[in-house]
Amino acid sequence: MEGPLGQVSDFDIRLLRIFKAVAESGGFTAAEVSLGIGRSAISVHMADLEKRLGLRLCQRGRGGFALTEEGREVYQAALTLLASLETFRTEVNGLHQTLRGEFSIGITDNLVSLPRMRITHALADLKARGPDVRLNIHMTPPDEIARAVLDGRLQLGVVPDVNRLASLEVRPLYSERSLLYCADAHPLFGVDEAQLNETCLARQPAVVPGYPLPGEARERIERLDGQATASDREGAAFLILTGCFIGYLPDHLARPWIEAGRLRALAPERERFATDFVTVTRRGRRPHRVLEAFLEALAAQDREADEHSETG
């Protein structure tokens, strides 16, 4: 048979805290200071608790204050309950301080060579805050990254800002510049800059991207004689380095071969375009503490970069 006390409410817990203070103070009057309420209010609360429990918890009168046998048992049970609540509060608060779980991120190829390594630094900050977080990096084409973010396989993607989907939240990240290159074995490598007009370049076999590009880039690539395709920028670099093709590469990707004398930028003042990169997350997603912590770290990187640019 069920007792008089059903589900324990917030009000019951408040009454038990008052009862605990009364029991430990040794009476209603002595508990006034610790509780910050008057004796009459304490008396009302104690009467409410006794009625709620169906038990007499204390004797009070000319003989002084004393707990009944039931009162002593309720006091011990209250200590256990309140200690459990404190343990629960401590553990939940600890979850906000300690990050756990997996974080899966999809990144377009060859962004690691960007001088502004905000993704790298933000991942380092995330790992410092949550050493137990498991990081999973997937290097895949932009369209596949977008699909994986939408179906939940990835928490975040880094992609070119092309063909935005309404179901994705987009945050600006950074911009990269691409120039037109040839390798040292290509006939144009030693040609004077003045001869590299659009007609000359349009006659050269070129590698064209098979991945999404901004409108300005598509216009420039359409002028080239596309005789090869590449699914990513690394593939384009492979083909350009054969000396058989010209093609566009991000300048940060081309830099090592430039410095080694293997690549040359062709008409760089004219043959160039910019690609903006963004992070994408699923709109209306469920709360994900690790993802939010990463976005906070990324925002901190942005603020730091802005401060450096203002003082630089």
From TrEMBL:
Keywords: DNA-binding, Transcription, Transcription regulation. Gene3D superfamilies: 3.40.190.290, Winged helix-like DNA-binding domain superfamily/Winged helix DNA-binding domain. Residues 11-68 form the HTH lysR-type domain. Pfam families: HTH_1, LysR_substrate. CDD domains: PBP2_LTTR_substrate. Belongs to the LysR transcriptional regulatory family. This is LysR family transcriptional regulator. It comes from Modicisalibacter zincidurans.
